[in-house]
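User: Thanks for the earlier help. One more: Cation transporter [Lactobacillus casei]. Can you show the sequence and predicted structure together?

Assistant: Of course, both are below.
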Amino acid sequence: MQYEALAVFLSGLLMVLIGGYCLWTAGLQTWHVLHAQSEALSLVVSLTAGLSGGLLLLVAFINWRQGQHAHDSVLLAAAQDHFSDAVTSLVTMVATTLTILTHWYLLDTLTAFGLGGYIIWNGCQILSQSAAKLSNGFDPKIRQQIVVCLDLVVGVDRVIYVNGRYVGDNLVLDVAVEVAPTLTISQADQLRQQLQQLLTEKWSLLYCCIELRAA
């Protein structure tokens, strides 16, 4: 399962490198425009970019739907990657068309700078998320969400701790909650099952250990 997180990490790294290359080529093109005061552009480029952007948006949406349904970080990363490419293509279409109409050639190169930065930003987001999973890190926001969720359950006096780690896209949780000392064994078993079912419905769990401690 760690191979999935590694694949996502490499995808994010590739996006950062592509964004850096875009910034480099944008810089070279800007230098050329400043000296030549012109740039070879065609409406065919705009039409191709628009068609490509539309198709990439469709692919991104399909991957996102499938990734949400299957809790698959690889599909979600692919959706983010395709969405980034779609935005790049559509912005390229608009920038190229405006450049041809206005003859302001710096518009195209300045847009390339913005797109390069956008691609790098998206890549960094993917890198950050996948690096946390590769290092078995546990998102503090998810921990807080679990604490709030458990606190609302009748029979739980307070949440003592919530520890977790990632195994691929799944969570391994170790939870301890404080309950009333008058709770019977049967009631404790029912409460434990209720808590486990609640956590399983809201998060993708590989394993969950729930400890009940008398107050």
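User: Great, one quick takeaway?

Assistant: The chain has a mean pLDDT of 81.
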